[in-house]
Amino acid sequence: MNRPFKKFISVLLASALIIPSGWIAPTAKAATPDIPVLLYHQIVPTATQDTQTSVANFRKHMKYLSANGYTTLTADEYVAIIKNGATAPPKPILLTFDDATPDFVTNAVPILEEQTPKMNAVQFVVTGWIGGGYSMTKSQLDTLVTDHPNISIQNHSVNHAENTWNSMTQSAASTEIATANTYIKGVTGKDPILFAYPYGQYNANVQAAAQANGIQYSFKVGYPNNGDHAMGRHYIQKDTTLSQIASWIGGPTPAPESGTTVYHETFASGKGIAYESGGATLTPVTGKVFNGNADGAALYVANRTNNYDAADFDYSKIGLVNGKTYTVTVSVYVDPDVTVPSGAQAYLQTISSYGLLANANYVAGEAITLTREFTVNTTSDTKLRVQSNEAGKEVPFYIGDVLITEKSDANVVYHESFDSGKGSASQSGGANLEVVTGKVFNGNADGAALYVSNRSNNWDAADFKYSAIGLKDKHTYTVTVSVYVDDDVTVPSGAQAYLQTIGSYGLLANANYVAGAALTLSKEFTVDTSKDSTLRVQSNEEGKGVPFYIGDVLITEKIGGVQKYLTPIKDIYTNDFLIGNAVSSADLDGSRLELLKLHHNIATAENAMKPDALYDANKQFTPGAADAIVNKVLAEGLQMHGHVLVWHQQSPDWLNTSSGSPLDKDTALLNLQTHIRTVMEHFGNKVISWDVVNEAMNDNPSNPTNWKAALRQAPWKAAIGDDYVEQAFLAARAVLDDHPSWDIKLYYNDYNEDNQNKAQAIYSMVKDINDKYAQTHPGKLLIDGVGMQGHYNINTKPNNVKLSLEKFISLGVEVSITELDISAGSNSQLSETLSNAQGYLYAQLFDLFKSNASHIKRVTFWGLNDASSWRAANSPLLFDKDLQAKPAYDGVIDPEKFMEEHNPESANVNQANATYGTPTIDGTIDAVWSGAPSIPINRFQMAWQGASGVAKALWDDQNLYVLFQVSDAQLDKGSANAYEQDSVEVFLDENNEKTSFYQPDDGQYRVNFDNETSFNPTSIANGFESATKVSGTNYVVEVKIPFKSITPDIDMKLGFDVQINDGKDGARQSVATWNDTTGQGYQDTSVYGVLTLVGKATDPNSGGFVFIPPTGNVVNKDGIVTIKPVVNNEGGRVTGKVSAENLKNALEQAASAANGKKQIVVEVPKQGDAKSYEVQLPTQSLKGQENFVLSIETENATVEVPSNMLSNVTVSADQVSIRIAKASTDDLDAATREQIGNRPILDLSMVVGDKVIAWNNPNAPVTISIPYTPTAEELSNPDSIVVWYIDGNGNATAIPNGRYDTATGTVVFQTTHFSTYAVATVVKTFGDLNNVPWAKQAIEAMAARDVIKGISANSYSPSTFIKRADFIALLVRALELQGSGKNTAMFSDVPQTAYYYNELVIANELGIVTGLGDNTFKPNSNISRQDMMVLTARALKAAGKQVEAAGTLDAYPDAASISDYAKDSAAVLVKSGVVNGKNGKIAPNDPLTRAEAAVILYRIWKLKS
């Protein structure tokens, strides 16, 4: 998982932590006044993660605080007031920001400082993250301190380690706090006085360490305060509303957010539609004025003894519509004389799923506000409830006001008034963009505007990049732009303002310029990123000289509605299979019906045809609701599938049970047959197929060939027996036999069918039943089809689906995919990465389905869009809550294209070592374990992060041994399911084949804290031993696992994982693993890590074996010498140490290459959760004493380090590290981020200890190769792939030598200094290249690297002659030549102010230019072709470029005209292919054109060093 995403998940989970106050003793009572503290993380243009706040919302928050008189404090002011009793200003508040991310500088600080007065804030800095990509750079931090004294820099630890601070010793905490203090004081000159616990985690040791290191106050996440070193903070998340913040800080209720009011109840006229839940009494009252209830009318909720004694509001009575999004705001008050229990809270919930929308602590005598945006899902909920938690179950309260607004169809995504600068506008062509004020005109009331001048082309204009303003592909927007021309401007006839999309140049709107008059350009449009990337406000050709103002740009997104332009899915697969969807009555009207009909041609009733929906309480058949759905579906031109006849759920008990006991077989069988006939004959041939039996099979049966033993313990089985499935199909077949004209197929339907054991059980059942039926009905099937439900997740293995599909096809039945969805994300949030991963799996599946289309009848999605899905929180479908297509739709429409364009990130596999040794299995940690490296068990598969620990592994010639040390909060084995108990598990794949299913060598071993064992499969129990020892709530487990299929040996690799299950109250609340995050390890060995057997060697004295500590090894294979260092992964910092001995051994084995250098490979294997890779090298080896190159290979990049790398650096340490880390684009401007996109961006640094040191050595260039898979577009023009150097201020500079190497599939470049480097795509062309097609590629490649430039944005002037000085400047730039910096005498006709002066100094020092004999250079004279050849040959030699030996010029008829001084240079360049002649001649005296110069530069750029 990448670092920012991991931080997002971890911090999100931390926000949910509730730390019991009884764990620690408070050190001091918080002083008065009670100053509220707000916690923010990232402030970004568009918030997509819970840790982010949008710029727009942050500005609203700050304006609210400013408008309502709040005084923001510095850290010093906060301590002075709380600790020292200083006088507090009016309404004091502390704003805090965690992690020092770059957006704080670019987005938050400007908003803080645009308020009056300027706002103060605290930035909690993780010192070890500064300059690492996720946090800001050191220069940004320095600028923050020097230029923004309103920002207090405080301590947030060095490394922000996860699940550490709640178990840390005082010594370790003190070291980390003190280290960070020292760093911060070095930046600010002041000792930090505030500390924020990483992830809000702490214990008494940590609190004591903070106090001992001068920290005055320490902060957690959430409230209440619990002493000076457990102070609370209100956590602002993506969906936190201004009303919530107002309620937290006791501020006035803000005006309701924009949106259509659908329900507003003040209780001035009674209870309204509110009614009692439980035993509550609801009484309308008056005169109860409180914040949010100015009129005094309220609803008193009393007589409360349960948390659900409350007030309910039915969706149907409010008028809430399924799938639509609303914001609900409720004001609540508790009388001042009420005793409020500790922890008592008001809850706003959806019923019946009991989804918590909002909660807040009851405070006697104070009002609170509950508010949240939510999307209605009538499948799971039917009402809103205002209640309490369990602690508040007896608290009576008032509801003062209930307001529900519907989310507007038009949502503002971008609004720029230019009152704070240019915003996201960028110049096009040669235009000047200037922000002005006082320019009031229609549509621009505030007078702030953007003046667009210096216009000589129609494209000299203002651009707005889609990515910068947040426009998304396939979403529909309305853009409105106000434009004005000064009254003294002469407007040519026909001159018009244009609003266009670039680069299809689609015209959205146009209007005539009128001097002194405003005009408005407005149009609804749908974004198509395959064609366009930018909005441009420009002119037509007639208006190209007209300067104009842009007063206001407003872009609103059209929310909801069907995208009619999309290609219907059913049309794509019209010759393959039917496309279906699950429907309810809500889907058969309006836009939902429109979407259904557009993409589908068959429907399945989601619930209406299930048995319990077809009978009333009197056991009467009442199919009215089902009839309405079936008839409507058929009337709309779709076909219908019947779901379901026999199921263990959603069936009336009386069919198979009486008084809790099974009916006798005869009665139950008669009920089964009668039910099936009644239903089938009622619907007749309105359906094309029926799910006769649904979900009869257990998950992952241990013996799948014995399908009867694998049957679920269902009520029908209990009453009828193992043959109930067969009996159900016989009853259905009997109905069809009675109606031979009906063409209806009979299906068995089940889920988790990608599990190979379950698939085998289903296969065995269908085969046995059909074979038996064929004995009396030759050539006929009883079961016509198998339904694969397809409820998958993004970790589902397509190969498992393929194996199951092929297995079912082999039965000779038809197959349907019946309930397809793919869960991804959580809390109805789906990141771009997860969205693309979901789309990729959909693409893989539909590619599979299409290749087997002749056997598949239909593919049915289980829901129209995310909001109406039964898995709504996991966003599993093709269309989002607003009915807009997601990447999943693209994956379904064109699987091949989607997979080509969205290569998934390869999973990182953790690797560890098992050392040689044999422990005693008794639960006691023997000394032999001390030599085994720790294996952290800290990857969590569930939202809650509970028990964790470490493991170690040993091995001998018969067994694998695993030790667990588990840290838990309580021990529980209350569940009957072993996997839900507090326990540990070992997963083992002896042959490490990483199959998506279990083979005979695979197994899962489980031991709970009481040493009770369970196994999967059960056959692996033989020879297994275990022992446990409990200490408080922590425990140790030792296990011995006999090897079954392998003879273990040194360097053998096993598939391996370990897991900790955390049980609580009879259920599993947490799962922690070493490698697997999918939860599929019980059936899929491909998710395991790799365990290498090491540390065994022969003892020459005894002939036995001894333990050898692993130090890495040297391998010489096929002449390639490779050092494989021992790798250590601590918190994502992966380190491999190359010892001096290993390097010496490698050099002794390596042969010198033709250049005299030895090549040594240092191989660092890919590691899970790696944030950076470091290779520690002996310092002395890099001083140039030997001649070699180290090729450091990591997943991020390969770095070729020369042996003289440190020849100009003084380092006293024995070891230096080369660090290769993935960096972030967060602190870059929008345009740069867009061009980098999702391409690699790396931070390269040299580290001594934990300190990054500067490295820059012009005499020791380092070669970097970054793995990269270009897009199809990039492959067609690989020269567009460039490398950028990103400086400390986020500025990007092209590296001229950077290029894509098709042979290795990497982007390669050389550098002489370490910094941040990014891969980008730059396409630059000019409009005047049509007459020089032979030079076009060269010109564009060099322009992409900023080696050459045009004379204007669209003109290169290829035929113009180039000057001597200009060509020298281009040569030096293209070859990246550097001088010594020493003063060199310059030619008399070259002024020091000349733009080419620095390049000419370098060329002069390197002997490339020598002048004309009179100490002149004639820089402005045109350069001849032969002079170009001389200078180029000298420059190539200075650059060390490989060129061929001198050749012949005989092929050129004018060779004799070459001057003697130029002949050798010409011959060399001709032989090397740099010069090819001109119209068959060498033309030495012709002046060189700009086009020819570009070609020469391009050819030397292509030469190898």
From TrEMBL:
Domain named NodB homology: residues: 91-223
Domain of life: Bacteria
SUPFAM superfamilies: (Trans)glycosidases, CBD9-like, Galactose-binding domain-like, Glycoside hydrolase/deacetylase
Ranges of residues in domain GH10: 563-895
InterPro entries on file: Carb-bd_dom_fam9, Galactose-bd-like_sf, GH, GH10_AS, GH10_dom, Glyco_hydro/deAcase_b/a-brl, NODB_dom, Polysacch_Deacetylase
Keywords for this protein: Carbohydrate metabolism, Glycosidase, Hydrolase, Polysaccharide degradation, Signal
Pathway the protein takes part in: Glycan degradation; xylan degradation
Signal peptide positions on this chain: 1-30
Catalyzed reactions: Endohydrolysis of (1->4)-beta-D-xylosidic linkages in xylans
Assigned GO CC terms: extracellular region
Domain SLH span(s) in chain numbering: 1322-1382, 1383-1446, 1449-1505
Family the entry assigns: Belongs to the glycosyl hydrolase 10 (cellulase F) family.
The protein's name in its UniProt record: Beta-xylanase
Native source organism of the sequence: Candidatus Cohnella colombiensis
UniProt lineage: Bacteria, Bacillati, Bacillota, Bacilli, Bacillales
